[in-house]
Amino acid sequence: MKIHPRYYPAIIITAYVIFLLIGILLGFGPERGGEGQGRNALMQFACSTLGMPT
Amino acid sequence: MTTPKPFSLAKSRRIIQWMVVIGTLVIGLRHIMPGEASRGGSFDSFCAFGGIETILPYLFSGHMLKSTNLLNFSVLLGTLGVSLAAGRAFCGWLCGLGAIQDFVAEWTRKLFGEKQHIHGRQSKAILPLRLPAIVDRPLRYAKYLALLVILIASLYMAFPPLRDFCPVRAVFGLKMTTLLWITLAVFLAGSVLVERFWCKYLCPLGAALAIFNKISPMRLVMDNHHCNNCGRCDIECSMGIADVPHQLDHPECVRCMECLDTCARDGSLTLQIGYKENQI
User: Fold this and answer.
1) Angle at B48 between CA B44 and CA B52, to 5 degrees
2) Distance (Å) from the C-alpha of residue B160 to the closest C-alpha of chain A?
């Protein structure tokens, strides 16, 4: 399928932002004070939906 | 009545590159202010390659290297997302170092004899150089070696192995050490001498992303019926790929789309989503 080149910048920026947000939702977010463990919001949601311990 | 200007990918790319450079400088500035620790980690934690450097220690021991944090993985995931969609487009469009090298190459050409850049025409400037293939080709493998060495070293080190020599920290980090000053000098001198010097020969992130050029669904396709092998795209290729129309999935390609932008024959190069069997 052909894509008009004008959409190319929007596609790559959107791909970057979507995957970055997925990472942050998975718990790989900025941590205060440097290194640390994530809160893993997406994983917690998945576990609570499936009734698994978090 | 004025006619609308034709769309230029090169101009869009330049605007995005400036935004990336300014954004990265803001991150650097943010981390020389007092109270760095309270602002979501160090400068290194915003680096995609930091995610690669710390992934093995994280997987094997559950600990991250110092000065990295979990945000590195998100930034890496964003970079992989772009790469999954469009190959090494991150290098060509969203990398701050790539942008700086493009700017330096442009300024160097102006400084060394090119009055006005005309798309598709060989520059008269004496710098930046294009190294002969006999030197250029083996040097390109250095970045894969660098990636391997860094991955192995990351298992034995407390800080990311590239940290003390990282050109991103040297250019944008604003916290300079002697080693970083040397790195900055080498990086700038290299970029003046050879266009995209760092990307071509040393960038370990580029080495890690190279494989995505072969598997990403979004790609340029050449139509043999339209292309007359004029060589305009070869001249514009900042990565120095020879015979661009037949090397559109080359691992060195940073998907900057300068070839598409400079192509004078409509339909020779088209941007498509699809796999090789769809190629014309």
Assistant:
1) 95
2) 13
ipTM of the complex: 0.92
Report the chain B residue with the minimal C-alpha distance to residue A23. Answer: B74
Which residues, in sequence order, are CB contacts of B124 under 8 Å at separation 6+? B113, B114
Q: Which tens digits make up the pLDDT trace of B235-280?
A: 999 999 999 999 999 999 999 999 999 998 988 999 999 855 445 5
Any CB–CB contact under 8 A between B41 and chain A?
A: yes
Query: What chain A residue is nearest to B90 in terms of C-alpha separation?
Result: A12
Lookup: tokens for B112: 């060394």
Q: What is the pLDDT of residue A36?
A: 43
CA distance A49 to chain B (A): 24
Which of B16, B65, B77 is the best mutation test for A, with the most CBs of A within 10 A? Answer: B77
**Cβ–Cβ below 8 Å for B257 and A5:** yes
Q: Hey, is B220 helix, strand or coil?
A: strand
The pLDDT tens digits of the residues spanning B67-121 come to 898 999 999 999 999 999 999 999 999 999 999 999 999 999 999 988 788 888 8
CA end-to-end distance (rounded Å), chain A? 43
Q: Give CA–CA dist B10/B99, Å, rounded.
A: 12
Q: Residue type at B259?
A: C
Above 50 in pLDDT, residue A38?
A: no
- Cα B207–chain centre separation: 10
Closest CA to B218 of A38, A47, A51, A9: A9
What's the CA gap between B102 and B197, in Å, rounded?
Answer: 10
